[in-house]
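Q: Focus on the chain.
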Amino acid sequence: MSPPRIFDRTLIRRRLARAARASPAEFLIEHVAGDLAERLAPILRKFQVAIDLGGVTAHVAQALSRSGKAETVLRLAALPLSAPSSFPVAIADEEVLPLGKGSVDLVASLLSLQAVNDLPGVLTQIKRALRPDGFFIGCLLGAESLTELRQSLAQAETELSAGVSPRVAPFADAREAGALLQRAGFTLPVTDLERLTVRYPDAFALMRDLRAMGMANPLVERARAPLRRATFLRSAQIYAERFADADGRLRATFDLVWLSGWAPHESQQRPLQPGSAKARLADALGVSEFKSGEKAKP
């Protein structure tokens, strides 16, 4: 059975291309690319072939190169690049990876996988492409991202229209993302959540940034008619009323879900089998041990 088609992938690529031709807002990808280098630092090994998956800009490839953890960095870009690249580039859809089984050692994907229709399938493809003991690290937008904008638009439409249309894409839940890593066959899976709050002078500035990141509404079930001017203005008013700080600037939440895992390898740590412990917990804690149903003596 095919996964449900939630995101209009053709529209996403078109909007990303439009943003790249204009003046793209790059603060978010710059932030996570900086985090990537820090997260790779504790790994005490080098990866022969590393993949920047889905990047429209060179930030991820550059972070991989600067980290010193990758001997060769290749980019699988979501669309043709508007500028020359210092890294080898292939154009590929994240949902259909052109990677052979066991062909790469590291895959990094930042801020692109939240817009695929089959995230479990993509993670399975990534795991298949990794050599034994290969590493995957990704970052995608989490469930509470843009919650302020979502609430403001919904309330404005409720007040002024016949119903509410989906205007902001649904994002991944951190716990569910961790479960998907295990389902895909990764070992030692790790997920964590970073909440980034960006402040704006008004809601219109946020919307301009979203457009400049190619993040306008990509839903298949989106309303085709543009938002009415009155609804647009009312949503901005609600946003200012509900989500302004004391200085009048507005908060915008970006939840960053980081996930990582390894392709299985015999050298990796494994949990002990039940009953294989060499020492008793009671001895470690310095307390007496009692059998089930036995009461402590006064």
Observations:
- The two ends are 64 Å apart (CA to CA).
- Strands lie at 47-53, 70-77, 89-91, 104-110, 130-141, 187-200, 250-262.
- The chain has nine helices and seven strands.
